[in-house]
Structure to design on (931 residues):
């Protein structure tokens, strides 16, 4: 197991290097380069820009700049925002809890719902429920998340007035859990839709596969009741592909969260991203790209380790 | 032997039979055909010029009069005309992006799969790296860099979504290149390029076709989303995405302005997704996701 | 042989076994481990041995479809074991191969016409305009109608596909064709037809063949000489008659005893070998055959027996083979 952990950590290194190269490259490709906020500002003189370049070390060879930048990333110095000059990492971390809350609640809903639908579909294969569920999942996967969000706002916030249309709290209610929950319902529903569909499809096929295996037939022949067969035999075995899915789907979850946050004005990382985009805050944009990519790499690593912990055979592969 | 490597021609009939059995896929294909026709013949179907303003006739509801079957928007422009022309834009971007995606993905996949070794390793680590970034993030950042034209939007979408295609093609090539017809070509002295593009690529056509269909759906979705955020197709050129942006301002009073373009996007994405799903079942029973 | 068309000596193909982690080499599959062969012009050499003994790998290495890790391959007097793609090009026209599986050896997405025109395209022979005529001629040679060119491989039976494979091998008018069990995937009734076709072509064109087979009975119809392989090495080479009546190697003798009626009139006590064929990743020391050999001596486990000529054209790699 220690060998496996070391091996997987080692595998993450080229990914981290690749991710940082792409992030660094994009920053230099950006119009106006890393100093866009100065170069694009007509009131700043050319010689001032030269001075700023030297201050930021941009007169040095590219590889030196990269190494400086990358070591900065890994030691927590992610640069400063153009407007306000705040540390980028602080700005991002400030928004992380809201995003994690939204992603977490959507993921929990989606896993519970998707898993139940998938397992039921697998157990009652080809039943009316199964056909409806698989078709419905295909429909859900084709739904543009942002439009679904707009429609949800229209129906539940504007027409029915059941729920607030956006934000995280009512004015003056900051910290009120009930208010938070009311605001959380619609974004969670919207973000969970696509993930639920994916989970129901994957868990259905994972369980179908497990149920066809010998040990399931043996358990049945031994007279183990259906519910126990499902819980004690099928679940542990179907868990592996589903944990892997958890890791693989992380980037999609971020994408979905970004879309959902823009629709609902949810003050998380997605909202920050779009605001930074509008203000051409390249340091924040690059920082967020790096942050999500590192998050994804770690997520996949954890998923793999979890699988290896469940199934010793994986470690030998 | 893999089903995808199985023969064409006589098989086209069998594939068609399998595809037809799939009722949703057939419906998807029908919707796609309808959309393509309406985009192609938009000038003939559209009641009027989509950019024609008529401030006297703002916010007409749908089905109220024949001059504007689907009503008018905040500037009195005809909604049906804008939907049809917007569809042209969305489908063009979707198709060009798909071609970019498929060409890039197929090229990288076949190179990695066929050459193997260090090349394969480097290319696949590159793919892994690209997949670490949430696509919407990557897409928006790059889209914000370049001046938004139809071509640049299509290219940006295409170049940020080829990774899955390259993995699919690589897997297929890894399996195909071990077959004896490749050894036969090498024994004849065929060049690597000939083996890659004449012998192997046509045999990977089935999974590529499926991926291509599904990629149109996701490209249409991406275009509408970045246009909605203002980084895609720019007004006055209509696109379903920027129609939604406009409509959002009048959401509580004239909801149909938002419902119609959204429904058009949904219909298109579903059409291509269902068709792709059916094609997968028909062409490649290995990948079947029943029922 | 004074001036053989092909002379292979000490041929080795070792595949690395790599660890799943850091991909470092942790072992070696000695698929071909020192093979010596000679083929004269117009001659048929049969290469016989059990499944997994390295026959296909030997054939593919001779054609340079797999890179040999050692040894020499001389074709028409020229050493080609180390040639790169460009220096190999002229030899591609002189050696060809017919594969075992007629389903996997034809590109399913190409018409038969396209498959048969490929050799001419690759070597820029003739003009695009005269290719249909060349293809039709090839098809006629192997007994197929010229309309076959328009159809796809899956529209043909196994025997017909194998004829197409033979036609492709003939296109460049080679001097040597390696047949890797060319009939073992076919119905018994079809096998004879294909064998007869190959014999006819040999007579007409003076072709040399290496016929790979795991079946000694098939070999008795076609071969001039036979080489018997065991675990990556050739253990005995002899003219066909000699091999059937005067086999010297204990492994060859065991193989022959398993053939029900190799040559009419001979009876042999059936000799069943003990144990399984060892893995080529862990071949036994000394004589590869010693753990199963009924007459093994202590030295057999230590010293590799080198091939010794016991009679003209008859070489045996066994310490105990009498000269
Ligand atoms: N690419 C490879 N990598 C590792 N080992 C290989 C490779 N190709 C073949 N081998 C091994 O080399 C040995 C010889 O294989 P080969 O195909 O040459 O045998 P064969 O005599 O043709 O058998 P058969 O009668 O089954 O065709 C086998 O043990 C095989 O597993
Ligand atoms: S060398 Fe020894 S072990 Fe090998 S075949 Fe001869 S007698 Fe048997
Ligand atoms: Mg073989």
């Amino acid at each position: 197991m220690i060998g496996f952990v070391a091996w997987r950590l080692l595998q993450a290194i080229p990914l981290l290097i690749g991710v940082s190269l792409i992030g660094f490259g994009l920053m230099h490709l950006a119009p106006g380069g890393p100093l866009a906020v100065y170069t694009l500002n007509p009131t700043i003189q050319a010689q001032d820009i030269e001075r700023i370049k030297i201050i930021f070390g941009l007169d040095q060879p590219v590889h030196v700049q990269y190494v400086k930048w990358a070591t900065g990333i890994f030691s927590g110095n992610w640069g400063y925002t153009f407007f306000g000059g705040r540390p980028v990492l602080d700005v991002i971390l400030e928004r992380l809890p809201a995003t994690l809350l939204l992603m977490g609640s959507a993921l929990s809903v989606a896993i519970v719902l998707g898993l139940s639908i998938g397992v039921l579909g697998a157990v009652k294969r080809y039943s009316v429920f199964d056909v409806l569920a698989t078709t419905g999942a295909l429909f859900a996967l084709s739904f543009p998340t942002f439009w679904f969000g707009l429609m949800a706002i229209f129906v539940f916030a504007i027409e029915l007035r059941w729920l607030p249309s956006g934000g995280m709290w009512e004015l003056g209610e900051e910290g009120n859990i009930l208010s938070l929950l009311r605001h959380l319902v619609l974004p969670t529903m919207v973000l969970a839709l696509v993930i639920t569909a994916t989970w129901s499809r994957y868990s259905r096929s994972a369980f179908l596969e497990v149920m066809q295996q010998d040990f399931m037939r043996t358990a049945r022949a031994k007279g183990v009741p259906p519910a126990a067969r499902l819980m004690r035999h099928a679940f542990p075995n179907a868990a592996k592909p589903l944990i892997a899915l958890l890791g693989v789907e992380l980037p999609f979850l971020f994408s979905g969260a970004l879309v959902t946050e823009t629709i609902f004005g949810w003050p998380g990382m997605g909202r920050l991203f779009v605001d930074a985009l509008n203000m051409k805050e390249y340091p924040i944009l690059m920082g967020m790209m790096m942050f999500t990519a590192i998050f994804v790499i770690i997520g996949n690593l954890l998923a793999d380790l979890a699988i290896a912990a469940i199934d010793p055979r994986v470690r030998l592969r | 032997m893999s089903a995808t490597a199985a023969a064409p021609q006589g098989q086209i009939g069998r594939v068609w039979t399998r595809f037809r059995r799939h009722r949703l896929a057939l419906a998807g294909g029908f919707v796609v055909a309808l959309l393509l026709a309406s985009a192609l013949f938009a000038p003939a179907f559209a009641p009027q010029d989509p950019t024609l303003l008529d401030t006297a006739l703002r916010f007409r509801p749908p089905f109220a009069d024949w001059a504007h079957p689907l009503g008018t928007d905040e500037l009195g422009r005809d909604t049906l005309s804008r939907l049809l022309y917007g569809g042209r834009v969305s489908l063009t971007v979707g198709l060009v992006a798909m071609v970019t995606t498929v060409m890039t993905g197929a090229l990288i996949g076949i190179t990695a799969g066929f050459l193997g070794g260090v090349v394969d390793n480097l290319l696949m680590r590159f793919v892994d790296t690209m997949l670490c970034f949430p696509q919407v993030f990557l897409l928006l950042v790059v889209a914000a860099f370049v001046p938004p034209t139809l071509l640049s939007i299509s290219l940006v979408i295409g170049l940020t979504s080829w990774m899955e295609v390259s993995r699919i093609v690589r897997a297929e090539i890894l399996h195909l290149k071990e077959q004896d017809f490749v050894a036969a070509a090498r024994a004849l002295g065929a060049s690597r390029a000939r083996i890659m593009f004449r012998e192997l690529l046509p045999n990977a056509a089935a999974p590529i076709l499926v991926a291509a269909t599904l990629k149109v759906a996701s490209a249409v979705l991406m275009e509408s989303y970045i246009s909605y955020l203002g980084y895609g197709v720019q007004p006055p050129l209509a696109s379903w995405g920027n129609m939604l942006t406009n409509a959002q301002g009048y959401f509580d009073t004239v909801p149909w302005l938002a419902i119609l373009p959204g429904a058009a996007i949904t219909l298109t994405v579903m059409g291509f997704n269902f068709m792709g799903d059916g094609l997968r079942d028909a062409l490649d029973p290995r990948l079947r996701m029943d029922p | 042989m004074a001036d053989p068309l092909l002379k292979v000596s000490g041929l080795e193909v070792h595949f690395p076994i790599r660890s799943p982690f850091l991909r470092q080499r942790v072992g070696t599959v000695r698929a071909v481990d020192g093979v010596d062969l000679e083929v004269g012009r117009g001659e048929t050499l049969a290469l016989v041995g059990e499944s997994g003994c390295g026959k296909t790998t030997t054939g593919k290495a001779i054609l340079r479809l797999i890179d040999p890790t050692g040894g020499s391959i001389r074709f028409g007097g020229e050493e080609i074991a180390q040639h790169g793609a460009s220096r190999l090009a002229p030899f591609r026209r002189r050696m060809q191969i017919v594969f075992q599986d007629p389903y996997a050896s034809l590109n399913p997405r190409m018409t038969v016409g396209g498959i048969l025109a490929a050799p001419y395209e690759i070597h820029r022979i003739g003009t695009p305009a005269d290719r249909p005529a060349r293809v039709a001629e090839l098809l006629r040679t192997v007994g197929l109608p010229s309309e076959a060119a328009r159809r796809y491989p899956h529209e043909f039976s196994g025997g017909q596909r194998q004829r197409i494979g033979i036609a492709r091998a003939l296109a460049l008018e080679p001097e040597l064709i390696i047949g890797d069990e060319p009939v073992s995937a076919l119905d018994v009734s079809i096998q004879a037809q294909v064998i007869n076709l190959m014999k006819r072509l040999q007579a007409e064109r003076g072709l040399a063949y290496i016929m790979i087979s795991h079946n000694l009975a098939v070999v008795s119809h076609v071969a001039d000489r036979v080489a018997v392989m065991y675990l990556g090495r050739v253990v005995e080479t002899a003219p066909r008659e000699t091999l059937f009546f005067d086999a010297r190697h204990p492994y060859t003798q065991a193989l022959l005893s398993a053939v029900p009626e190799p040559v009419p009139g001979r009876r042999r006590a059936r000799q069943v070998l003990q144990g399984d064929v060892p893995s080529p990743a862990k071949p036994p020391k000394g004589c590869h055959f010693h753990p199963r050999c009924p007459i093994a001596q202590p030295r057999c486990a230590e010293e590799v027996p080198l091939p010794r000529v016991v009679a003209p054209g008859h070489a045996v790699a066994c310490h105990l083979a009498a000269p």
Residues 18 and 300 of chain A are 16 Å apart (CA to CA).
